[in-house]
């Protein structure tokens, strides 16, 4: 076969090697017509020292430089059935990228058009060529916030080892090639690296064509043909083109600094240059060097203008300053030529102002503009200011300094350079002149007070609460009402726009429209006509023009669905506002601004007509009052004493539960125990007021409690959720749920998708339980709580009445007062916790009680924030440090005593006494089921266990332990003595009978702490043979 490429021959000169930088040693490749290929292809003469040998793909070359026969390269394509399957998966919109796109208001249909598919937990970009044939595909994994999962490698179709031996491989085309429009050869093609960037940006900039090349070096020979004969805009990622460092110093080559590769400097740009393509590089973020791109900007709510800088045809050379004629002060006295320049310059500047284009993005364009306008002398200064004013960083001083320099240099004799810059922004003088005449004609058709600018900018104008277009027959109404998009509410599940509609008759309504309402004409008319006399008479084109105007003016906001602490925004949200060092109330639409961002709280929004919605959330609201923490704490302590102090500590720690849980992976529950009318419910009510209108406690007797409690705990962060009516007879599922709250376990549910995704709902608030039963049926639950005991008795009724009156004023101001110190708590909590825990351990050691360490940690967790605030004198408390420690130790000792009496082995002996003393007849018989020997008690567990199970249920409303578990606990009982074979079958009072010895467990009777004399009579100590 004949070779398509060969090495250049003498007399064509050798060039500089791109590898070793030596001159006149590099022989280039040429095509069959003798045209030199890209200068990266060639062979260095210095094979021993350099060895650079880069040949065009698919060709083999001999050492002589002549082409040898190469195997015919075969291009593979995905099988037809594979392609059909992947194309069908573009209908699946469940990937994380699809979900993220919805939060940006991008409909699923847009991604489907771009051939974005879902394959299990991956997003697939299908590379379709211009004939819409599948060439290849790329699989990526994204997180729910639209970021690529860097721990998971992307992949695509690849040839097997056998196929590689045959030079067979899968090709690639530009992603989005199948969507390139060919109706206008002047329409630029925007080229980006990432497929995701092309998909997202094309929605917000539909007037441009978009493709992705896959990487900074992604434009290759096989892909580039799709870009031929079109203007190309390379949107550079914010990386590359900075000095490359070697051993900490800039790397030099041939006396020049070596620059890094990246979005601003890469082989793709060199490839475009070698093919002599019409391209420009647009650097949207010149101040950044972290790889930031257009997709990142859209995520951050930024929509930068995408306009290409002017391309100078030649390097500007310094010219000697010219002596320009002095212009008369009055423009009317200028020469005809200068008047024409002045007229044209004003037309261009008005168009720049109308479009809001900032020429100063490119320093050379801005300098050329100043030099051009300097021909008008001082008259041109105001023109330059007019161009600069729309920019946020506009500085009058800087503009004056630039213009003064331009006046001094006097480089230009006409504004030609300025007009050339305008042409690069698609501003043509002929169009401007035509527009002037059109404006005159249009002005005659428009109502008084309506500017032609509005019509040219949007394609319609507003008048008398309606929108009109202009036809050859005159104005035509396209929409019988006006729309104002107040906010775009970003939400993972329910994005929407809050809009205000006002019709021709003055009727106004505000509502939230789902983003899908703007996808098509039918959906839009359905939504707006359902709320009143709002008739849209236009077509799809009119709706698109309207959307462009509305979407450009909208403000992006984020919906708050969980009240309490908001980690990302660093504020505490009530249903009617947020707090971060200061209180900010929502506006009439439920919007609040914080740190330059908008947040939407739908609970009291004026657009919410359902008064039965958000009942519990509406109670979680703040109302200003004069109540201070010091006065409230004093009354709580006077009314509730020790319980009030510990409850106060629990409340304060609950406001920082997120941080505390992160430090320990656990958070204790408070348990208020007492009989009816003992005051535990009133006590809980006093703390409910701290979060707004008191919420109803959730009854644990309700069979649907588990799901309801978990949902409530997930709806509020750093608050307190009250659970009531706990009884030891609750089912195991409820007990398991309560224990899980301590460890942060929630509820796992399946998500409707094509894979095995699940959703985990975790508790985010502290749990407060009340009940008449002490939770000693399960010690694992008991030790996860801090027990407060309530006894009916006298209280300080005068202080109680004062507390009730205080609660009528709203106590949420106290919560704000505590939250002001979050930064201090977060900073010092971990160090301070260790000190508090060690102090508690030392105090318990003095009491010579071996307390379970979990109980000490639980108490230290809730004491630490209060002790820090107390010792730092940040809040005033009605007790000192030592008093609080003493109360905490008293609580721990009391609970430890209850636990000691409530162990499973201890409960067995209580049941054992019940079996012996059962009336009218004992359920176990001395001599047959148990006996005394040498002052110790021996039992036959096999005989005792069945009646124990029944008696345990009678006494505790739950069955006892299974035999294996009970066997284990009894062997580890402190009173356990031995396992022994003894003779039994001796009914009390019967003659001694010889029987075979049987296995039994022996216990030191004196250490059991039980009394059997009333049932068993005298203790028998003689041996039985």
Q: What does it look like?
A:
It comes from Hymenobacter psychrotolerans DSM 18569. It contains 33 helices and 45 strands. It is α/β, with parallel strands linked by helices and 1025 residues long. It has seven domains: 1-70, no CATH class; 76-299, no CATH class; 331-427, no CATH class; 439-557, no CATH class; 560-619, no CATH class; 629-817 and 849-898, Rossmann fold (3-Layer(aba) Sandwich), CATH 3.40.50; 903-1016, no CATH class. The strands form 13 sheets. A six-stranded mixed sheet has the order 26-25-24-27-33-32, covered by helices on one side. Strands 31-30-29-28-36 form a five-stranded mixed sheet. A hairpin with a 2-residue loop joins strand 22 (467-471) and strand 23. Helix 27 (853-871) packs antiparallel against helix 28. It starts with a strand and ends in a 9-residue tail after the last helix. The relative contact order is 0.04. Mean pLDDT is 84; it is low at 58-71, 312-325 and 1015-1025.
Short descriptors:
alpha/beta, 19% strand, Zinc_ribbon_put, DUF6371, disordered C terminus, 1025 residues, DUF927 domain-containing protein, 7 domains
Globally, the shape reads: elongated
Count the strands? Answer: 45
What is the level-2 CATH architecture name of the largest domain?
A: 3-Layer(aba) Sandwich
How is the main sheet built? 6 strands, mixed
Could you list the spans in which at least 5 consecutive residues all have pLDDT below 50?
58-71, 312-325, 1015-1025
Average pLDDT metric? 84
Look at the helices and sheets and give the structural class. alpha/beta
In the CATH hierarchy, the third-tier topology of the largest domain is known as Rossmann fold
**CA(first)-CA(last) distance:** 112 Å
Compute the number of structural domains: 7
Strand content: 15-25%
> Strand order within the widest sheet?
26-25-24-27-33-32
Number of helices: 33
User: How large, in whole angstroms, is the Cα Rg?
Assistant: 41 Å
Helix content: 25-40%
The CATH class name of the largest domain reads Alpha Beta
């Amino acid at each position: 076969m004949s070779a398509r490429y060969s090495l250049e021959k003498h007399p064509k000169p050798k060039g500089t090697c791109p590898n070793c930088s030596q001159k006149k040693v590099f022989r280039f490749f040429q095509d069959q017509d003798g045209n030199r290929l890209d200068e990266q292809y060639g062979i260095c003469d210095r094979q021993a020292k350099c060895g650079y040998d880069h040949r065009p793909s698919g060709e083999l070359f001999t050492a002589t430089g002549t082409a040898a026969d190469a195997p015919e390269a075969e291009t593979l394509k995905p099988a037809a059935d594979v392609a059909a399957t992947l194309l069908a998966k573009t209908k699946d919109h469940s990937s994380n990228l699809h979900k993220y796109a919805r939060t940006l208001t991008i409909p699923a249909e847009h991604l489907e058009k771009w051939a974005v598919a879902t394959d299990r937990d991956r997003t697939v970009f299908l590379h379709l060529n211009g004939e819409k044939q599948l060439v290849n595909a790329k699989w990526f994994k994204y997180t729910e916030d639209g970021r690529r999962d860097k721990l998971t490698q992307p992949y695509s179709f690849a040839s097997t080892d056998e196929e590689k031996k045959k030079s067979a491989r899968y090709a690639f085309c530009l992603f989005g090639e199948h969507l390139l429009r060919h109706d206008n050869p002047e329409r630029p093609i925007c080229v980006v690296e990432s497929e995701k960037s092309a998909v997202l940006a094309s929605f917000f900039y539909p007037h441009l064509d978009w493709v992705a090349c896959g990487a900074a070096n992604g434009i290759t020979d096989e892909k580039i043909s799709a870009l031929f004969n079109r203007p190309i805009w390379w949107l550079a990622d914010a990386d590359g083109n900075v000095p490359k460092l070697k051993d900490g110093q800039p790397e030099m080559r041939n006396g020049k600094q070596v620059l890094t590769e990246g979005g601003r400097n890469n082989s793709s740009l060199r490839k475009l240059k070698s093919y002599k393509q019409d391209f420009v590089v647009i650097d949207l973020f010149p101040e950044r060097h972290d790889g930031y791109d257009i997709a990142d900007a859209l995520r951050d709510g930024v929509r930068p203008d995408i306009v290409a800088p002017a391309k100078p045809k030649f390097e500007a050379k310094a010219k000697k300053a010219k002596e320009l004629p002095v212009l008369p002060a009055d423009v009317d006295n200028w020469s005809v030529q200068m008047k024409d320049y002045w007229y044209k310059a004003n037309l261009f500047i008005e168009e720049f102002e109308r479009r809001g284009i900032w020429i100063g993005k490119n320093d050379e364009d801005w300098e050329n503009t100043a030099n051009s306008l300097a021909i008008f002398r001082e008259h041109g200064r105001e023109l330059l200011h007019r161009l600069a004013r729309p920019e946020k960083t506009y500085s009058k001083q800087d503009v004056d300094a630039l213009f003064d320099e331009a006046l001094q240099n006097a480089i230009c004799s006409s504004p030609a350079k300025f007009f050339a810059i305008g042409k690069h922004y698609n501003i043509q003088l002929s169009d401007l002149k035509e527009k002037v005449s059109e404006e005159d004609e249009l002005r005659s058709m428009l109502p008084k007070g309506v500017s032609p600018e509005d019509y040219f900018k949007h394609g319609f104008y507003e008048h008398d609460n309606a929108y009109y277009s202009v036809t050859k027959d005159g104005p035509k109404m396209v929409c019988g009402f006006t729309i104002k998009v107040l906010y775009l509410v970003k939400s993972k599940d329910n994005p929407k726009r809050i809009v205000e509609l006002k019709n021709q008759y003055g009727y106004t309504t505000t509502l939230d429209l789902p983003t899908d309402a703007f996808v098509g004409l039918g959906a839009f008319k359905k939504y707006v006509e359902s709320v009143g006399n709002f008739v849209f008479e236009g077509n799809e084109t009119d709706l698109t023009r309207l959307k462009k105007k509305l979407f450009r003016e909208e403000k992006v906001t984020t919906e708050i669905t969980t009240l309490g602490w908001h980690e990302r925004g660093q504020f505490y949200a009530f249903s009617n506002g947020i707090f971060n060092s200061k209180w900010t109330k929502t506006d009439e639409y439920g919007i609040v601004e914080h740190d330059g961002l908008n947040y939407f709280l739908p609970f009291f929004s004026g657009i919410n007509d359902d008064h039965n919605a958000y009942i519990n959330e509406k109670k979680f609201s703040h109302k200003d009052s004069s109540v201070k923490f010091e006065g409230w704490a004093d009354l709580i302590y006077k009314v509730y004493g020790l319980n009030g102090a510990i409850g106060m500590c629990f409340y304060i720690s609950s406001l920082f539960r997120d941080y505390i849980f992160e430090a320990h992976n656990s958070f204790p529950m408070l348990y208020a125990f007492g009989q009816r009318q003992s005051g535990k419910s009133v006590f809980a009510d006093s703390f409910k007021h701290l979060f707004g209108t008191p919420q109803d406690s959730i009854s644990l007797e309700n069979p649907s409690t588990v799901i309801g409690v978990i949902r409530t705990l997930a709806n509020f962060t750093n608050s307190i959720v009250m659970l009531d009516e706990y009884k030891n007879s609750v089912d195991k599922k409820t007990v398991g749920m309560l224990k899980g709250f301590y460890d942060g376990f929630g509820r796992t549910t399946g998500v409707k998708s094509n894979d095995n995704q699940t959703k985990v709902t975790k508790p985010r608030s502290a749990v407060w339980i009340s009940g008449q039963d002490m939770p000693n049926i399960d010690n694992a639950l008991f030790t996860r709580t801090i027990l407060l005991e309530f006894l009916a008795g006298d209280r300080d009724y005068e202080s109680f009445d004062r507390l009730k009156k205080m609660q009528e004023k709203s106590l949420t101001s106290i919560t704000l007062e505590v939250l002001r110190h979050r930064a201090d708590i977060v900073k010092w909590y971990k160090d301070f916790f260790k000190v508090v825990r060690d102090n508690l351990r030392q105090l318990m050691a003095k009491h010579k009680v071996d307390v379970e360490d979990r109980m000490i940690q639980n108490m230290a967790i809730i004491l630490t924030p209060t002790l820090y605030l107390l010792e730092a004198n940040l809040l005033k408390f009605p007790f000192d440090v030592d008093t609080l420690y003493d109360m905490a130790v008293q609580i721990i000792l009391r609970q430890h005593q209850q636990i000691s009496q409530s162990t499973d082995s201890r409960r067995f002996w209580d049941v054992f006494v019940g079996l012996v003393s059962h009336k009218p007849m004992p359920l176990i018989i001395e001599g047959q089921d148990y006996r005394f020997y040498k002052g110790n008690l021996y039992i036959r567990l096999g005989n005792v266990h069945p009646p124990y199970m029944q008696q345990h249920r009678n006494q505790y409303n739950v069955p006892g332990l299974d035999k294996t578990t009970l066997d284990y606990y009894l062997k580890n009982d402190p009173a356990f003595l031995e396992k022994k074979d003894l003779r039994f079958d001796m009914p009390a009072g019967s003659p001694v009978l010889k029987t075979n010895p049987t296995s039994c467990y022996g216990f030191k009777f004196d250490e059991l702490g039980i009394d059997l004399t009333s049932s068993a009579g005298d203790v028998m100590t003689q041996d039985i043979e």
